[in-house]
Structures are given as structure tokens and as C-alpha cells.
């Protein structure tokens, strides 16, 4: 897969975004091993823009590593400064899975309590109502009522 080609302005924006990042992948004396490629690929999938630190003193070897990683992982080489390499790849779209067994989550409900004299403002309270709770008439939370079993007479008539 070829490396992604970016314009100079796009690379400049990515360099600015990568300035505060810490290196995520470290390449030691063994060089580009399959494990390093796998971790770099996983980091690009998770973050999109990553820094890679290379513990090699040879500049030509670091440039070759940057080109190799960009080609193999379909990423854009952003910057090579010192022993740091910056790579970018667009984040893959996340797939949202709908669960059938999902229950309703907690709700935040506003409760108004009016004053007994008409001169004061009503008090507003926000309550979190969980799935096993209900809001009572006085504005307090109670456990949800258990459903009463249907009567024996109704089930026998059907």
C-alpha cells in the first residue's frame, strides 16, 4: 500500500497537532520487527496521529524506517526530527453495535417544588432516576413497584 500524500499545509497542521504528543511506539536495536509494525498499526488505528521514537544513531536508517512504515501501514509521513518520527493515518469509522438486551439508562428529571406562600420562587431539583426507581408524588425517589400477578380468576377465564 502506498503512503498517503499530503500537501505542505496539511503536513504543517499535523506537525502542530503532534507537538504535544509523547512517543507511543519505541523502536530498539532490533529495528523494524513484525511486532513493532503490529504495534504501530494498532496505535495508528487508536490515535490516528502518533510519534515513534527510534533508538538508532544513523539518520539514513531512521529515514528508511519512516518510509517503510508509511508504505506498509498506508500512513502519511509527517515529520522526522531527531530520533522522532511522526506518522498519520485517518481514523477508521467506528461501528456502533445495537444490543437487543439493552435496558433504558438513568434519566435526569427536574422536580419543581412550589413554596406554600406565593411570594417565593419554586425550587428546582435535578434527580437521577435509575431503572429500578420511580418518582413519587412528593418529588422523592422510590423503588419501582413490582408488578402484581394477574388474578387467578382472570387467567382461568381466558
Structure description:
- With 158 residues, the chain is of the alpha+beta class.
- It has two domains: 8-88, Translation Initiation Factor IF3; 107-145, no CATH class.
- It is built from four helices and eight strands.
- The protein has helices at residues 8-18, 34-47, 59-72, 152-157; strands at 23-27, 49-54, 76-81, 84-88, 107-113, 123-129, 133-135, 141-143.
- The strands form three sheets. Strands 1-2-4-3 form a four-stranded mixed beta sheet, with helices on both faces.
- β1 (23-27), α2 (34-47) and β2 form a beta-alpha-beta unit.
- The radius of gyration is 30 Å and the shape is elongated.
- The termini are far apart.
Overall shape: elongated
Helices and strands, in N-to-C order? HEHEHEEEEEEH
The N- to C-terminal Cα distance equals 68 Å
Note the main sheet. Answer: 4 strands, mixed
Count of separate DSSP helical elements: 4
Q: What is the fold-level CATH name, i.e. the topology of the largest domain?
A: Translation Initiation Factor IF3
The CATH H-level superfamily of the largest domain is YhbY-like
Assign the structural class, choosing from mainly alpha, mainly beta, alpha/beta, alpha+beta, or little secondary structure: alpha+beta
Spatial sequence of strands, sheet with the most strands: 1-2-4-3
